[in-house]
Amino acid sequence: MNNRLCELLGIEYPVIQGGMAWVATAELAAAVSNGGGLGLIAAGGAPADVVRSQIKKCRELTDKPFGVNVMLMSPFADDVMKVVIEEKPAVVATGAGNPGKYMEELKAAGIKVLPVIASVAMAQRMEKMGADAIIAEGTEAGGHIGEITTMCLIPQIADAVSVPVVAAGGIADARGAVAAFALGADGIQVGTRFICSDECIAHENYKNAVLKAKDRDAVVTGRSTGAPVRALKNKLTKEYQRLEKENAPFEEIEKLGVGGLRRAFEEGDVQMGSLMAGQSAAMVHKIEPCADIIRSYFKEIDKMLETIKTKMDV
Predict the structure, then answer these.
(1) Do the Cβ atoms of 14 and 3 come closer than 8 Å?
(2) For residue range 258-295, what is the model confidence (pLDDT) as tens digits?
(3) Nearest to 165 by CA among 31, 8, 53, 44
(4) Is pLDDT of 120 > 90?
(5) Average pLDDT of span 174-190
(6) 68 within 8 A of 84, measured Cβ to Cβ
């Protein structure tokens, strides 16, 4: 495949791997890039030296373009950005904040900037600031989310900006990819599906939880705090919901989540770990190599277009 997103990023397939904290390690990012997409290392809440070591490790595993996802609400964001500018990965994706103050230095370093946004206004603002492309993420996604669905968000963003638009949130297979392109996207970002890849080093229990997920298992907590998060329901999410229902103090709710991702990713704690995953988890049924996952999004497009045509003829 070749379109303007592929040309911009120097990739074979218009697929970006989501910057999932803890989950998106150098191993996963390199595997996605080697498979023809764009892998992202998730900086999350990690300090700068850890991010630097992940970038160096990724370079040992791939000679293809890859990027770093920087969570701007991290207390280490400034230091992480300095490392990124020094190391010069091909791409920086940003979330949970405005990357405006870093934009000039990132562009001067030759780094493509792809902000993750959840509204038309933010997309337009990012384009004016110099973003090379926009990752528009619907509320179906895992982790920190907005409120607008992918189905409604993507066409509005595509109409509002001239840079390439990447659709994110709820895209688990080729059907989702076809829908995203029909809505006006130039590419897709995939997160939850890559948790269940051979190269992802998440704990086996985490992967199995995704494989076992049903349609209503990806629930949202944290709306009362202004920072909603989608994860698979377990004892942790139920405790979150209890505290929110009881109007517990913000500090008590926040304390509950400390270390949750680490417990899920490293220890395989599926009860009190934060099993961040999107609503598409219920559509993930097997663990495969990243390269096979990427190809699966495109190998049946002709067949699906024929199915659409048949339905339209009827």
Answers:
(1) yes
(2) 889 899 999 999 999 999 999 999 999 999 999 999 99
(3) 8
(4) yes
(5) 95
(6) yes
107 token code pair: 């562009």
* pLDDT tens by residue, 41-71: 999 889 999 999 999 999 999 999 999 999 9
Residue range 87-107, pLDDT digits in tens? 999 999 998 888 989 999 999
pLDDT for 165 equals 98
Degrees (nearest 5) of the Cα angle 158, 116, 153? 35
What are the DSSP calls for the chain, one per residue?
---HHHHHHT-SSSEEE---TTTS-HHHHHHHHHTTSBEEEE-TT--HHHHHHHHHHHHHH-SS-EEEEEETTSTTHHHHHHHHHHH--SEEEEESS--HHHHHHHHHTT-EEEEEESSHHHHHHHHHHT-S-EEEE-TTSSEE--SS-HHHHHHHHHHH-SS-EEEESS--SHHHHHHHHHTT-SEEEE-HHHHTBTT--S-HHHHHHHHH--TT-EEEE-GGGT--EEEE-SHHHHHHHHHHHTT--HHHHHHHHTTHHHIIIII--TTTS--B--GGGGG----B-HHHHHHHTTTTHHHHHHHHHHHHH-
Q: Give the C-alpha distances (Å, rounded to integers) separating 16 from 155, 218, 221, 246.
A: 19, 22, 26, 39
Indicate if the alpha-carbon torsion angle 48, 52, 55, 57 is positive or negative: negative
Percent of the chain with pLDDT over 70: 99
